[in-house]
Amino acid sequence: MRVPVLAILPSQEPLQESAATALDPNLPPSSLANAEVPSGLDLDMSFAAVPIGSGTGQEASLESLEPTQSERFAVRAFVDVDDPADIPEEVDGQPLFGDPAIAHFLTCGGTPPMGATVDVATKLNTAALSSRGLDGSEVAVAIADTGINLNHLKAQLGQMPLLDAGNSWRPPGGPAPGTSPVDHGTMCAYDALITAPRATLLDVPVLRATAPGGAVTGGFLSVALQAFAHLLGFWAVAFAPGGGPRYKALVINNSWGIFHPSWDFPPGHPGRYIDNPTHPFTALTSVLARSGADILFAAGNCGTQCADGRCQGRTTGTICGANASPDVLTLAGCDTNDVRVGYSSRGPSIAGMFQNKPDITAYTHFLGSKAFGPTAPDSGTSAACPVAAGCVAAIRTKVSPTTVPPANLFAQLQSTARPVAGQVGWNRDYGHGIIDPDSAAQSLGV
Amino acid sequence: MTDNETVVLTVHGGTTPPTLAEAAAQHSVAEQDLNPDFGVRPIDPDRGLYAVEIRADRLPEQEQEVPSPYQGPFSNPRIEAFGPVRGDDEEPPE
């Protein structure tokens, strides 16, 4: 392999000329071609030599850094080795140093918001969608989460969003639809409404399990199974010709999942969830999808660079369970600079499930719902998922699931996604790229 | 596995779900061992497939030999939000 390094060479005329030219563009061009270079070192001719004085690390005077005065120069070069462990510490007595790739820091959990709702709306071209009537009208968006607080949404949006309380799902003893404390579910609802402001929310608080002290920490999969069974029944009625309250489509947002295999049955157990497509919940998810509901799941927050603590350091094969079903759209997260956030789980999925997850990427870590305070971002792949759910709902305003079933719509979203720099096809960070609902809608003729 | 106090069993019915008693009989457990609040939920009604919930400690010692497809017990793991949650001590997005 060819490894970039920084080498320190003693002063010589070609190095002095290279450094001088870099400092003064009026000087005639110079070349490093005639520099004396130790064997085994391939000089990078495009990299101007840098005077470093004595190169001993001692405090250097400005004069000692003049090209004509400097005793040593840093140059960029390459060495060929079979293994990184074989990189020599010096070549012909000249020291070598690493020249690692550097990049700006990835967005992590503690990073302040990157942009705001308006930036996300601009990125998604919501104005163009809205001008064509793609705003989520008569589309139901189920927020399977901690519950929705309508008053907070009204305060943030400037108007009361639509909520179908009668067809929402309520766990035993749970709060009335739309009256849950401001929390994660309210964040998700807000984010879905960015692109689909006229969608009708269904409040489905599957995560409202209360721990000692009153903190909402999560739920159990059986609760989600109950809720999905309810949605299956609702959808069968709502979408049946001549049925009750009709909707054009049902979009289900799921910004939750399993953080670590230790939460599940042991490997090899036939009743295990995370890598078992026949688990009842995953099977129900597939049935619901085949009946025409658009189901979205977040990929998870076990990304390599800054995984959630609950991942217990495990960052491979972390997209699992229904989140890795081929029948759902699985969302990675990026910031408003189109850079994947460091906590977004990377593919491929856990062995045994559909491998090429995530499917696609949407925006997160922006100042949006303010559900967690006036300066706290909507974060996690939790926020990316409803941002995409809103895009799906907007398109569903004029694209029926009977003519374009969920699998076809998801394929269209993938094929029209914006690839990140250098991306060809699916990759484990972004899936097929960053969601572009306007392009997807146009490709579907709306 | 932790926190799996309940598990899920699949049961078979027709176009309408079996009663809780019928579901219990399919797995040779007492009806009162099944969670009445969970009830009998559809998984794939077209195939007559439904689900019930039972406390893990109420499962029979020896699950009866069941023909394929596997009917359970299936895991009922805890699930959590992939983002910040109020009252969570950890730093967002945890």
TrEMBL record, chain A:
<dbReference type="InterPro" id="IPR023828">
    <property type="entry name" value="Peptidase_S8_Ser-AS"/>
</dbReference>
<feature type="active site" description="Charge relay system">
    <location>
        <position position="382"/>
    </location>
</feature>
<comment type="similarity">
    <text>Belongs to the peptidase S8 family.</text>
</comment>
<feature type="active site" description="Charge relay system">
    <location>
        <position position="145"/>
    </location>
</feature>
<keyword id="KW-0720">Serine protease</keyword>
<keyword id="KW-0645">Protease</keyword>
<dbReference type="InterPro" id="IPR036852">
    <property type="entry name" value="Peptidase_S8/S53_dom_sf"/>
</dbReference>
<dbReference type="InterPro" id="IPR015500">
    <property type="entry name" value="Peptidase_S8_subtilisin-rel"/>
</dbReference>
<dbReference type="GO" id="GO:0016787">
    <property type="term" value="F:hydrolase activity"/>
</dbReference>
<dbReference type="InterPro" id="IPR000209">
    <property type="entry name" value="Peptidase_S8/S53_dom"/>
</dbReference>
<feature type="active site" description="Charge relay system">
    <location>
        <position position="184"/>
    </location>
</feature>
<protein>
    <submittedName>
        <fullName>S8/S53 family peptidase</fullName>
        <ecNumber>3.4.-.-</ecNumber>
    </submittedName>
</protein>
<feature type="domain" description="Peptidase S8/S53">
    <location>
        <begin position="136"/>
        <end position="433"/>
    </location>
</feature>
<dbReference type="Pfam" id="PF00082">
    <property type="entry name" value="Peptidase_S8"/>
</dbReference>
<keyword id="KW-0378">Hydrolase</keyword>
Automatic annotation (TrEMBL), chain B:
<feature type="region of interest" description="Disordered">
    <location>
        <begin position="58"/>
        <end position="94"/>
    </location>
</feature>
<protein>
    <submittedName>
        <fullName>Uncharacterized protein</fullName>
    </submittedName>
</protein>
